[in-house]
Structure of DUF1553 domain-containing protein:
Amino acid sequence: MLAPIVRPALLAVALAPILSPAGVEAEDVDFDREVAPILERHCLSCHSTENRKGDISLATADDLFDLDYVRPGLPTESELIALVVPEAEGEPPRMPLKGEPLSPDQVETLRRWIAEGAAWPEGTTLSADEEATWWSFRPIANVEPPDPEGIPEAWRTNPIDRFIFARLQESGLSPSPPADKRTLIRRATFDLTGLPPTPEEVEAFLRDDRPDAFARLVDRLLGSPHYGEHWGRHWLDVVRFGESNGFERNVLINNVWPFRDAVIRSLNEDKPFDRMVLEHLAGDVIAPDDPETAVGTAFLVCGPYDNVGNQDPVQAAQIRANTLDDMIRATGEAFLGLTIGCARCHDHKFDPILQRDYYAFSDALAGVRHGSRVIADEERRRRHEERRAPLVADRDRLNAEIASLREAIRSRAEANAAAIEAGWTRPPVDRTGTEEAFEPVEARFVRLVVEGLDTDPDRAVGARLEEFEAWTVGDAPRNVALASLGGKASGPSRVAEDFADAYSADLTIDGRFGSRWISGGTTLTVEFARPETIARVWLSSDRSGAAGQLGEATFVGEYRIEVSLDGDSWTQVASSHDRRPVNEAHRQKRLFDREATEEEIALLERLSAEVGRVNAELAAVEPLPEWWVGQFHQPAEPSHVFLGGDPQRKGEPVTASSLSALSGLDSAFALPADAPEGQRRLALARWITAEDNPLTPRVLANRLWHDHVGTGIVATPSDFGAMGGTPSHPELLDWLARQVLANGWRLKPMHRLIMNSQAYQQSSSYRAEAASIDGDSRLLWRFPPRRLTGEEIRDAILSIADVLDHRMGGPGFRLYRYLEDNVATYVPLDAPGPETYRRAVYHQNARAMRVDLLTDFDCPDPAAAAPNRASTTTPLQALTLLNHRFTLDMADALASRLRRQAGDDPADQVRLAFALAFSRAPDDAEHEGAVGLIERRGLDAFCRALLNANELISVD
């Protein structure tokens, strides 16, 4: 192995002279001037002391020489050269992964340097070239707004306009003229509240001739409670907020809605975003007694998680790793705009994120578990305990009396057990098949009376049967319970609505096995076609035994068999009472029932009634709220890197720390292995929101820009890495990021800044020449028009029809019927009623669930974060708007509003309808056609057509 640091003085190697093409002896390669810049610019962004991709650093000589990446004097045998030249003609070299390949001159420089002995000056440590560092990791530049030549006077006031105009000018583009006031109020109102402006609001704005009329409009809209509802939806998309757990069970989580309300409330109050981040990651730490703060940690657990459970420790560890992975990805993407999750199995292939960075984040979140916690301040807890304490004491005293009496009875029973058990001579009940034989008896009816389940001797409801047979006597016995012989089985049953076909509502005695009847009572009765003489019955719940091995079958444990000729008078012919009990619980119950006296039973019943009364009083005490905000425990074991992402292959130990690529920040942190659980999350949150962290302010500024104009300055709002987009206006992004900090992380000043710009207030008119240069208007030569989101479409229709329920907060409504039998099923409502007419942000969003209009118009599935909303055009959209019961009901409601507010004159009805739907008056042709439609087809038909207009669901 070669020495880690190689200097020319240590190399007594006779090298052939390196000649230039002209035959002149070349000068020796200067490491500092020629080699170091190549390594710093092209290699160290991924291979530095702080960012050792592939466990390789080129910052010092150690790795290069110790691992034979460089073999002094032997360039053809040096791995460094092999990596930077193509393996085959026409293929790119393996390195560098990011940026342009090395030029032939740069490769030749490295060849010559190695051939000359690969001198590395003693003590030299390289650092990544600032220009080679990926742009999002560089410090936020202190940019001065440009002053481009020829900029219109109106574009000089707002610094944003100066950046936009300069960039347009570079591309040979010019801005569009301002939009008219009707367009502006509709654009701004949807933008900030997600609702259309009212005709009164439009007219008031049109009459306002003050120079700052639009600025006043923006201020009014920011003060509306609807602002938080609309922009809260943006943030809930980013943090993958959903109200079911996903995976195969996908059951509803009915107590996570307080987080949604907290987000809306925080935005309306203009809570600083850095404070929201602290609350999202460590609200329970910074203010444990304040419910409005502690609720923030629902961010960590509002994503999908697998709660099926697995007894295999290997699989359980993998599920836990997957659960943490969701939290790590959500944290990295929402706040930092980094796909940290890509480093789960290996160093990130494109960004300076090491695998140990991933597991440092994992260690910070290792104590988080999904679940609910009581969220209440100390005073509320005290009052609650004062009411509960005496009742709990009474209950405990009564339960102690019951336990003492039952123990006395049990002790007596055990003393007499041998004599009692001598009468249990037959085998226990067997769920794969149990037969009862008795003296032949004539009967028209036979019934099974369940006295206890094999899984619970005190419970008799819920037994599962797949077959019940009743056999006649004679040489050719018949199963007269068969449906084919006229047998009719009846009895209360429980049917799982979501899988109705899997069970029988009434047991069919068909001689086949598989379908199961689940008792909803304690009796199964079979009526024969005529009186028959029977001598035995046979019953089973799991003939193959497969379901029992999986713990799925529930069979009878104690029973009676009774017969009748008339269905009124019954005679017992058999029972399980002389069988051995199926388990110890059944044995104890039998002994207890035989030994207890009437007086003891009466006393037990009285005491139980007293317990019931106390429990009822306890239930009447208003419970402390339990919200789905996670549970936190100190990790039992230290964290490790998982080699290949496999929890069974533990690598080096790792502790909570900031990203190694930003280890030079003053805010960088690294905690000891025994750091308290809450302090780990708090340290991570504080680093994320530190003013010297260049990522978080940039990501936030970009999200605001994205949600105002449709596309961010970086088109991938949650990926600021090499596989994401690059900024269309890098200087503007940094300037906006600094404004985020200057405004104390408050969002409302940023909204004002963006919306009061001339760039935002431009017309959206199309210009073919400009579009040929910038088709998507990324450079903002016009305001990009957009289609409304699914929530905006639904809310707008409700608002226009004058039926929108403005109640804020609380548990959400459902546009589906929810069915649960271990797993959940969501059946969309065909005719949603007025109880669903709230804003869509209050819909209880379950994962993997379709809700007609909302889903058809691209509302994302909260199974994953949705930083970008899709905007598709599909036939289902047209069909839903035209034919769904919701739209038909809204057309009727709108027609009622028009009659109520405009009278019976079709001309007046049309003018009001256009003002409500489009914020404008109809032109002559529209007015004439609409009036004609009303006269021919009626007002309802006109309203239905209006709700299907493209203009209704578009904003210019």
Observations:
- The first helix runs from residue 31 to 42.
- The first strand starts at residue 368 and ends at 369.
- The CA atoms of residues 432 and 920 lie 75 Å apart.
